[in-house]
Amino acid sequence: MSLDRLRASLSECPVVRFGDYEYFVHPITDGIPLGRPEVLEEVVDEIARVGDWRCDKIVTAESMGFPLAAAVSLRVRKPYVFLRKRKYGLPGEVAVAQATGYGKADLYINGVRSGDRLVFLDDVVSTGGTLRAIVPAFRQIGALVVDIVVVFEKTREKKTLERELGVQIKTLLKIDVVDGKVVERP
Q1: Strand pairing of 117-125 and 94-100?
Q2: Are strands 117-125 and 103-109 parallel, antiparallel or unpaired?
Q3: Are 85 and 106 within 8 A, CB to CB?
Q4: Both ends of the chain: CA-CA distance in Å?
């Protein structure tokens, strides 16, 4: 796994503060600054390489998982479904409360059924709020999370989160925000 382009792109990340939360702004996590196709392609290649594609569906949460899930779907030939922040009222819709480091929202699960084998993709794991909301909801529906792949690991609590949820979380790069800059950590 080289991810040289993704690593190089970290030097261009602005960092903004939401209360006590330091939020890094990156094309993979925010769609700004300008997203480079060669960086996205490198990320998609790596997700396709490390993911467990013995699944029925790729699932992601609104909104920055959307380009990842769509691109990976094309690569691995698996259908995708998006968890949305909008209620549609479709049959079988499940609402879950999500709390992240910078906000709270309801997510609405549609298109996930009992017996589905899911791979969940996301741009960043930081507080674990999204995963803490959706993994139990998937289980309540009767779906099985066979893999979780996240681009950026911005937490030092991944092992705790994995134990809590009973699932492994694969990440491509571990990062920290130090003195207003995004840095990779070993």
Answers
A1: unpaired
A2: unpaired
A3: yes
A4: 14
Contact assessment for residue 175 and residue 24, using Cβ atoms and an 8 Å cutoff? yes
The tokens describing 139, both together, are: 């289980």
Q: Tokens for 184? A: 């990779």
The helix/strand/coil state of 130 is helix
Mean pLDDT lowest among 29-38, 66-75, 164-173: 29-38
Q: Which among 59, 136, 61 has a CA at the least distance from the CA of 106? A: 61
Q: Among candidates 168, 148, 146, 157, which has minimal Cα distance to 60?
A: 148
Q: What is the DSSP string of 32-84?
A: -SPPPHHHHHHHHHHHHHHS---SSEEEEETTTHHHHHHHHHHHHT--EEEEB
**Consecutive H or E run containing 129:** helix 129-141
DSSP letters along 132-147, please? HHHHHHHHHHT-EEEE
The string of pLDDT tens digits covering residues 58-101 is 999 988 899 999 999 999 999 999 999 999 999 999 999 876 65
* The domain made up of 4-184 is a member of CATH 3.40.50.150: no
Closest CA to 119 of 48, 59, 66: 59
C-alpha span between 163 and 185 (Å, rounded): 22
What are 3's two structure tokens?
């991810």
